[in-house]
Amino acid sequence: MEKTYYYRVGEQQVGPVSLDQMRGAVNLDTYVWSEGMANWQTVSQLPDLMAQLGLSTYQQAATPTQPAQPAQPSYQTSYNAENISAKPPKPNNHLVMAIISIFICQPLGIIATIMAIMSDSAYNRGDYEEAEKKAKTAKTLSMVGLIIGLLFWVLYIGLAVVGALSGAYSSY
């Protein structure tokens, strides 16, 4: 039975393929693996495979390579099948309550809405602690805004009713 190989193109694994199928698809920097190998190795680390593929070190510059993927910024976390389950659940950012509080107490409602949006941004970049803090701040500001706003409107309506009633009983 012919020996089969696996090779990587970027983060994607290709294989199993025969030696003939690998010709022209790999270069000296391509990582390969086959049964019996402990780890993935570049073709340049395997002189026997280089010879079988007809590759030599002087061909390195002439062989086109897969364009390198841009480096991921350090503040972002890469998620794959192994660590996707490690991602904590997204905190409730209380955005709806923050938007409602804009109509009752505008200054605090606006700040609460901004904090809710910042919570989502922090979660998306993988900063879970910051996301939790921003979500709690959004909730607190929304609640305070709602309470202050409702107290203001109750006081306003109460004074309007008292004023209207006192005008009804006044005599000239």
SSE inventory with pairings:
Blueprint: E1 5-9, E2 12-17, H1 19-22, E3 31-34, E4 41-42, H2 47-53, H3 95-104, H4 106-124, H5 128-168
Antiparallel strand pairs: 1-2, 1-3, 3-4
Oligomer: single chain
- Sheet with the most strands: spatial strand order: 2-1-3-4
Number of helices: 5
Q: What order do the SSEs take from the amino end to the carboxyl end, as H and E? A: EEHEEHHHH
Q: What would you say this structure looks like, in words?
A:
The chain has 172 residues and is of the alpha+beta class. The protein folds into two domains: 5-59, no CATH class; 88-168. Helix content is 47%, strand content 10%. It contains five helices and four strands. The chain has helices at 19-22, 47-53, 95-104, 106-124, 128-168; strands at residues 5-9, 12-17, 31-34, 41-42. The protein has a four-stranded antiparallel beta sheet. Helix 3 (95-104) runs antiparallel to helix 4 (106-124), helix 3 (95-104) packs parallel to helix 5 and helix 4 (106-124) packs antiparallel against helix 5 (128-168). The termini are far apart.
Give a brief rundown of this model.
With 172 residues, the protein is an alpha+beta fold. The protein is built from five helices and four strands, in the order E-E-H-E-E-H-H-H-H.
